[in-house]
Amino acid sequence: MIRVAIDAMGGDHGCEPNIEGVIKALEEKKFIPILVGDRAKLLEFLPQYYHEKIQIVDASDAISMSDSSTDALKRKDSSIYKAVELVRNGLADAVVSAGHSGATMTLATLRIGRLPHISKPALATLMPSLGKNKTLVLDVGAVVECKPQNLYEFAIMGEAYAKSVMKISNPRVGLLANGEEESKGNDLTKEAFGLLKGFKWFTGNVEGRDIFNGHVDVVVCDGFTGNIMLKTSEGVADAIFTMMKQYMRKSLPAQIGALLMKKRVFSNLKKQVDPHEYGGAPLLGINGCTIIGHGNSNGKAIKNAIFQAISYIESDVNSAIESLMIQPH
Question: Does domain 1-118+285-329 have CATH number 3.90.1150.10?
Fold first, then answer.
């Protein structure tokens, strides 16, 4: 059975959402959860019924959002350090954390290690799309300053993830640039284009709008660009919903229309853009499985992050990445 280590002290709201998410996940899937954190605090919130169903690894320290990422390497009693060590030592198959993302990425990269032939890991996330599937975007924050080789590796990892985990038989991978023509882009994207154009799944350059219109299944970019894109998209979605509510309050016909559309339209739309529905972002390129959630994750988000980890392990996507990396093109 798949063993998932959860950084129970990670996140903006302490251990409660992590425990809630684990319980929700156990109600739907069979797996072995390992809560890593302050045992006394965890037992305060963990119902007696689950004491025999959930393992606890005691950790006396927790990395806060204001701490430095590099400090995590020295704080061996922290919940995220111990959770990552469980994967490193083969005592867990995956780690899930909604805590300090930089600390989690640093520990996963240096303690679990990278896959062979992967120079830098990439943080991947799903974005809403008009197409049949959501669009996988990577990197969204792991590698701020990229080299062309990094983008080349990101594309391969994205194609493998889309095929193995998202079950897209022939994923289309695009390189984010300021125009579709091969001549567009900066020095980084132009050189990366040259490395990728021999692959049949590479569609060439794509623009920002193509992330959402279903034109491709995977979009590759450097972590600086990807993180800004992600935060901007989340801000736009929040702003649109806020503006819709404001307009509805001013108009009675709009309020009546909103009530009629609430279940069929608004609930489905909110589900498309709600980050809690996805749960977290996989750190691709690690010799294991690491899922990084939002700091404000609720129980639903933690549950979905755990499901992501289970799907990741079941798909054996790491083997697919290794096979693609050694194949000539």
Answer: no
